UniProtKB/TrEMBL annotation:
This is Uncharacterized protein. The lineage of its organism: Eukaryota, Metazoa, Ecdysozoa, Arthropoda, Hexapoda. It comes from Drosophila rubida. CDD domains: F1-ATPase_epsilon. Gene3D superfamilies: ATP synthase, F1 complex, epsilon subunit superfamily, mitochondrial. PANTHER family: ATP SYNTHASE EPSILON CHAIN, MITOCHONDRIAL, ATP SYNTHASE SUBUNIT EPSILON, MITOCHONDRIAL.
Length: 56
């Protein structure tokens, strides 16, 4: 791990994303659908004003 990580000049996040993608591609077809669901991410944005979350 360490040699590849240093050699590629990528961050740990990039390395783990590459490893996860390779693992998902290597899965059997019946397991790929479940793995693809875990690949989704949900983000919630909260606007801030004066050091506190602003309400809508």
């Amino acid at each position: 791990f360490a040699e590849w990580y240093v050699c590629c000049f990528c961050s740990y996040i990039q390395y783990s994303n590459i490893a996860a993608r390779v693992l998902r591609e290597a899965l059997r077809t019946e397991l790929r659908a479940d793995a693809a669901k875990r690949n989704e991410s949900h983000v919630k944005f909260t606007p801030w004003a004066n050091g506190r979350p602003a309400r809508k």
